[in-house]
Design brief:
159 residues; 39% strand; three-stranded antiparallel β-sheet
Length: 159
């Protein structure tokens, strides 16, 4: 009977581990890669902060020119199916990550800085730097499932 219960217990543990494991795939975001949920529907959105544009002479060509010459450009990727947003920021062009997160810092461990904004979470992964200086790039992952965001954040690899 003990042997039977031991085997049953082992099967139960294996089943729980297999069911709870997230089904993920590696995705190339251009400046970084990360393991994301397999059912993700990633779409890219391009943004730029445009400076010194004369609003009296706005045309599509002047807007395109201003955007192409903008120093503050970044791409955000949205996964509508899992309600997750990924942003890559270069701190030399866009300041630092604190300008792009809202809420209180709740943890800073394993290379991830986590923030809580009443049910929305931000997980920030910073590029490794040299000695005590941080790297110049950040990935911000935003969503509602903190554990999933941390799992994804741990797999971020900068190029």
């Amino acid at each position: 009977m003990k042997k039977f219960l031991g085997i049953l217990f082992l099967i139960l543990i294996c089943t729980i581990v297999c069911v709870s494991a997230t089904n993920s795939v590696n995705h190339d975001f251009g400046n970084f890669t990360a393991d994301i949920p397999a059912d993700s529907d990633i779409k890219a959105y391009y943004s730029a902060v445009v400076h010194n544009v004369d609003s009296r002479s706005l045309s599509s060509s002047s807007i395109q020119s201003a955007v192409s010459n903008a120093r503050d450009k970044y791409v955000s990727y949205e996964d509508g199916k899992n309600d997750i947003t990924y942003k890559f920021l270069n701190s030399t062009a866009n300041g630092n990550y604190s300008e792009n997160v809202i809420g209180d810092e709740i943890s800073n461990d394993n290379g991830l800085i986590c923030f809580n904004d009443t049910g929305d979470y931000y997980v920030v992964k910073q590029q490794d730097g040299f000695l005590f200086w941080p790297g110049e790039c950040y990935v911000i992952i935003e969503g509602s499932d903190l554990n999933l965001l941390k799992e994804i954040g741990q797999t971020v690899k900068f190029k």
